[in-house]
Write a structure and sequence with these properties.
Its EC number is 2.7.13.3. The protein is an alpha+beta fold and 430 residues long. It contains eleven helices and seven strands.
Amino acid sequence: MTSEHPRHLAEALRRRGWLVSAWPWRALVYLVSTVPVAGVLAVGLLVIVGPLLAALNAVWLQGRPPEIPLILFLAVGSLTLLALAPLVSFPVAAVERWRLGLVDGRPLPPSPWPGLAARYRTAAGWREVAYLFWLGGFVPVAYWVFLLLVLLDLGLVTSPWLAGDDNEPVVIWRTVNSASEAVPYAIVGVLLIPVLWYAAGLLAAVQAAVARWALAWPVDAAALREVARSRTRLVGAYEAERRRIERDLHDGAQPRLTSLTLQLGLARLDVPEDSPAARPLAVAHDQARGLMVMLRQLVHGIRPQSLTDLGLAGAVRELADAATVAVTVRADLDGELPEVVETTAYFVVSEALGNVARHAGATRAEVRLTRAGGDLVVEVSDDGRGGAEPARGSGLTGLADRVAAADGRLLLASPPGGPTLVRVELPCRP
């Protein structure tokens, strides 16, 4: 369990220190402040619900249809209620968003006035209307039930004082004749007080969860799809630019630097060792060779040459051969893979094997490459100590970001004591 301060009531209810924290009082304030709002809405609904129940009762018990004036009143009243509900729900929703901060610290998106027509056309407006009816219909019933439980518990606690010479109170289903007979009931009532505190918190948490669901503006699915498509285009363009840079370095700068290094090496052979130019030439030659190594590593970091020459399975086996622990590679791949997928999968394996060597304390690891349902599945497992967490670093957060950029997902299972399994699923769309 994390030691961070809970951000909302439902999370706080799961903590051991619930009863001694400020959360029960915040829940109580939230419930009490609901009463006037829900009460006014309930009265408004009763104007329609009361005559409707009377009409249904007449039909059910007396078998006669309701009178014409009552039907007209219900029809006109219902239409008026539905016409006014989107307008009334807007200020009520604004108040509820503000009150939700009492028990939920997570921010809600702002709710500017969208225009009169939008209140009747948008799904968000009708979700607020649904919350309006829920707040005025279901919430008062739930509060009355909870109030009855509180009054019952209060009767249990005060029963020893209520039982006197002339009083014979009925506690639950039994008449109490003396204070001594009421003491067991009072003890039970005192023990039930923490239960009622939890019940009050649960009631407030359920109400807050419904409020958050109803008052949060719905996500625009079309906009999300466009964002996903634009991200795919950006990743493709980024990968193409990486390949262009890799080709320019590999085919242009790297051969010229190799030639320069060879020329410097030949010049060193022609210059006597006691010549004043011998030492500067040797330094230049060493620097050129170091720059060649650096450039080779840079090209490898953009797109490893082994991917181009050997494919994903061969490049992964090359990584396994260079690892400091015994690595078994199992590859079951058929067909070509998109370049973005190949590059992402390669770096996933590279980073995962690097974590195994640096942090896991493992003696062996296994890499599995398979195709499943049109996706490339990469699994890297080890027999190390486990306990890997992205929050602690180890490159897992950056790895997850790289996988997400390719529209994939990363799954991690690393219980304390091991074993650790990193699973990456990458869609192989052409």
